[in-house]
């Protein structure tokens, strides 16, 4: 079935990404509107979430839509054996948009194939997290004034981290230099390195994480080592503290370097960095509201011109 679902944004052109950035900026100027009055947004979270679910629900509410859904699949009929296909087909009877997080890679693509209702992928296993990527791109664009030719350091769990996979694929359009810093067990998977190589994108893999090695960074994208992705907890214990960003490591940084993190954080960014001008992760999460307002409107066919001419602004 074909519809306006957002399963991945890696195929989006630079023009489409710029268009969504412009929509996000328009939402930031006027986040409260009634442009979705009469619409219903379903949020189906088969995996835990704080930011993604609450920011999608806030986005829908601030635009005048109503929200249905669940955050605990145990309280739904999937616990009685109802299939994902049946669940999606059912919810399609009720909602205009379905925002879904699922532990299985490919679940969002599958869902988009069994319904005409637009699906927004809110994370599928360790695969992709496109709405996070939109807010990451918006955060980079806002803080750096551009997306082109940036030095981007990705640190931590690069193997299971769907946020870094999604961001890498989108940033490849903008001639970045990537630095991948991860323990051997959590290295960036070969498919993503090949993705860079096929597009002539420079990347360096390194184990050192010091004030010297991060001195030329424009963006340091920290990630959590995700306990829930490990089958061997001994291995998790071995690698969980491999890379911790400390305040004294920022002494040689570029003035406008920003630290991003999709959150939640455990201990990979020390708390005393939070009030540093380099820390941007809480503002980044705040940008999620505007990016997700833009994405919901986009899948419903509401254009940037519609937003600019909107008379329902509150
Ligand atoms: N960044 C992110 O996906 O956070 P949540 O898991 O809290 O939604």
What can you tell me about this protein's structure?
The protein has 314 residues and is of the alpha/beta class. The protein has a five-stranded parallel beta sheet, covered by helices on one side. It has a four-stranded parallel beta sheet with strand order 2-1-3-4, sandwiched between helices. The model has no long low-confidence stretch (mean pLDDT 96). It is globular. Helix 1 crosses helix 5 (130-144), helix 1 (14-29) packs across helix 9 and helix 5 crosses helix 6. Helix content is 35%, strand content 14%. Helix 8 links the parallel strand 8 and strand 9. It has ten helices and nine strands. Phosphoric acid mono(formamide)ester binds next to helix 2.
Protein traits:
single chain; 314 residues; alpha/beta; four-stranded parallel β-sheet; 35% helix; 14% strand; binds phosphoric acid mono(formamide)ester
* Share of residues in helices: 25-40%
Strand order of the largest sheet: 7-6-5-8-9
Report the end-to-end length measured between terminal Cα atoms. 36 Å
Strand-and-helix sequence, N→C?
HEHEHEHEHEHEHEEHEHH
The average pLDDT value, as a whole number, equals 96
Supply the number of helical segments: 10
Radius of gyration: 19 Å
Number of strands: 9
Point out poorly predicted stretches: none
Structural class from helices and strands? alpha/beta
**Biggest sheet character:** 5 strands, parallel
Which small compounds were modeled alongside the protein?
A: phosphoric acid mono(formamide)ester
Based on Cα principal axes, name the global outline. globular
Percentage beta strand: 5-15%
């Amino acid at each position: 079935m074909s519809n306006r679902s957002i399963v991945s944004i890696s195929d989006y052109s630079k023009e489409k990404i710029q268009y969504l950035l412009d929509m996000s900026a328009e939402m930031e100027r006027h986040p409260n509107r009634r442009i979705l009055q009469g619409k219903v947004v379903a949020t189906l979270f088969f995996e835990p979430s704080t930011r993604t679910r609450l920011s999608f629900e806030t986005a829908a509410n601030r635009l005048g839509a109503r929200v249905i859904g669940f955050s605990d699949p145990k309280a739904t009929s999937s616990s009685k054996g109802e299939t994902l296909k049946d669940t999606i087909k059912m919810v399609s009877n009720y909602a205009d948009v379905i925002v879904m997080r699922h532990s299985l890679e490919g679940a969002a693509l599958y869902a988009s194939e069994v319904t005409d209702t637009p699906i927004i992928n809110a994370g599928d296993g360790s695969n992709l997290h496109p709405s996070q990527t939109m807010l990451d791109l918006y955060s980079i664009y806002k803080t750096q004034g551009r997306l082109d030719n940036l030095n981007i350091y990705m640190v931590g769990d690069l193997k299971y981290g769907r946020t870094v996979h999604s961001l890498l694929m989108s940033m490849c359009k903008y001639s970045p230099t990537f630095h991948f810093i991860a323990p051997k067990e959590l290295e960036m998977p070969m498919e993503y390195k090949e993705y860079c190589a096929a597009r002539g994108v420079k990347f360096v893999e390194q184990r050192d994480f010091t004030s010297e090695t991060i001195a030329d960074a424009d963006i340091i994208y920290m990630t959590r080592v995700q306990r829930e992705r490990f089958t061997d907890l001994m291995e998790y214990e071995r690698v969980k503290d491999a890379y911790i960003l400390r305040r004294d490591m920022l002494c040689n940084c570029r003035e406008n370097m920003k630290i991003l993190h999709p959150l939640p954080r455990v201990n990979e960014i020390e708390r005393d960095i939070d009030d540093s001008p380099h820390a941007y992760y809480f503002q980044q999460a705040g940008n999620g509201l505007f990016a997700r307002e833009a994405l919901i409107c986009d899948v419903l066919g509401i254009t940037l011109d519609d937003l600019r001419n909107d008379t329902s602004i509150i």
